[in-house]
Automatic annotation (TrEMBL):
Keywords: Hydrolase
Domain Isochorismatase-like: 10-177
Name of the featured protein: Isochorismatase family protein
CDD domains cross-referenced by the UniProt entry: cysteine_hydrolases
Cytoplasm listed as a keyword: no
Gene3D superfamilies for the chain: Isochorismatase-like
InterPro entries: Isochorismatase-like_dom, Isochorismatase-like_hydrls, Isochorismatase-like_sf
Listed PANTHER family: ISOCHORISMATASE FAMILY PROTEIN YECD (PTHR43540:SF7), PEROXYUREIDOACRYLATE/UREIDOACRYLATE AMIDOHYDROLASE-RELATED (PTHR43540)
Organism per entry: Paraburkholderia antibiotica
GO molecular function, one term: hydrolase activity
Amino acid sequence: MALTTLDAKTALVVIDLQRGIVALPTAPHPSQQIVERSVTLLDAFRRHNLPVVLVNVAAGAPGRTDQGAHAGDFPAEFTELLPELKQQPSDHLVTKRTWGAFSNTDLAAYLQKQGVTQIVLVGIATSIGVESTARFASEHGLNVTLVVDAMTDLNADAHANSITRIFPRLGETGTVQEVLDLLEKTRA
């Protein structure tokens, strides 16, 4: 579904723009492009005094997978948020240990306390952290907006699957410019 509106209390949720993730090879978009577009949205949300949530991943979930064991903590330098994000004291930091930002974190409680009814999602990786967070947000009854030109993946096919098949079922999709236009229109 195309982007139609932003609720009065909408939060920007930035997924895994941290040193270790951004250093990985991504497709179809380069990580730096995603960082730049996300920073544009961060600046706009902060300017409009809307909640900003910065999410990083500090460990893999327990359990074996066909891609190897991922349990355990990541090195500190891997988890550091990028300086380009210009983390502010008003930003809410969520450190996750699973794919999604809601499991075993305070994200749902924080959003509820802020009166947030909609989240705008950006980040890396589309089919992992972004999609998992979108699924849980939808299950929590939040309106979900997925900014498709401000996310990328480790696999182009997985990215395309999320964008074309999964996201339209979880919320509305749009571009950075569409979100900026709606912010200016509804917050003028």
